[in-house]
Amino acid sequence: MVSIALHDLELMLFIRRFEENLLQLYAEGKIAGTTHTCIGQEYIPVAMAPLLRDDFIISNHRGHGHYLSHCDDAEGLLAELMGRQGGASGGFGGSQHLRRDSYISTGIQGEGLAVGTGVALHFRNSGLPRIVAVYVGDGTWGEGAVYEALNMAQLWRLPVLVLVEHNGIAQSTETAHQMAGTIAGRAAGFGITCKEIHSTDITAVRAEMAADVARVRAEHRPHVAVFHTLRLGPHSKGDDSRAPAAIARLAERDWLRAAASNDPATFDRLDAKARDRVAQVTATVSARPLAGDAPW
């Protein structure tokens, strides 16, 4: 295994413990609505964030790791989920609808890619050297808006980077039972390049994606990157339809397990730090007043 930079491991561990804490807060009735965790997928946005510092990020319903990686605003995220003052969207958007600077998320499948195509058109027409990175899941490829957006992005030569977190399951249906063909094959139908990444090694993933990000920026052409990853948590809250044995088999490939065995002493130190930070953020946000009346 390639050595993980300490700041990368620290952030990945913080996201993992933050997400686990969210499930506990939900079980205690301290989070309303719903929440979708990215447990098992944390390394993807952590790998991508340094490559996309000045770009526009569009996330989805499973976007807490994206927000923490690209925005570094744990208190704003937790306040949003808990409906407290200081939330990323004022405490009214909840888990799926976050906005900060050049970051937005949406809980509507396929909407992010459609919106991202429009933002990319603006960047191209304005001569701005920015790209739009859109995080989607494999289940999103059942939405027609995805194909309309890909068609326009390729036809108009737009700087759109599609980051597919292919965890093999769409809510409660395995991808093999609901998708004919492959994502790469569908992208090829529009003449769009596609890369498949099977590694969970953050250092290798970042190195592999660097040239693709640069090419999208320089050539103003869309590109699809498919990260074959793991969803170790439930779809949302506690509604996991998979057998415990199946989840246990997936957990054997968890990046966290590999990191823990690679350097146990460093792992334990950073893990304790992450847990302490989560506890501090939770205490701070829990003490804030509720968001109050909506501004509309």
Protein architecture, described:
This protein has 296 residues and is an alpha/beta fold. The chain has a single domain (6-52, 65-99, 108-191, 200-279), classed as Rossmann fold (3-Layer(aba) Sandwich), CATH 3.40.50. 46% of the residues lie in helices and 12% in strands. β8, α8 (202-219) and β9 form a beta-alpha-beta unit. α1 packs across α3 and α1 (6-27) crosses α11. The radius of gyration is 19 Å and the shape is globular. It starts with 5 loop residues before the first helix and ends in a 10-residue tail after the last helix.
Structural class estimated from helices and strands? alpha/beta
CATH names the topology as Rossmann fold
Q: State Rg.
A: 19 Å
Name the beta content range: 5-15%
Distance between the ends: 52 Å
Unreliable stretches, pLDDT < 50, 5 or more residues? Answer: none
Name of the CATH class: Alpha Beta
Helix-strand topology string? HHEHHEEHEHEEEHEHEHHH
Tally of DSSP β-strands = 9
Helical content class: 40-55%
Q: Strand order, biggest sheet?
A: 2-3-1-4-5-9-8
Shape: globular
**Domain unit count:** 1
Please give the largest β-sheet. Answer: 7 strands, mixed
CATH superfamily: Thiamin diphosphate (ThDP)-binding fold, Pyr/PP domains
Helical stretch tally: 11
CATH architectural category: 3-Layer(aba) Sandwich
How would you summarize what this structure contains?
The chain is built from eleven helices and nine strands. It is an alpha/beta fold.
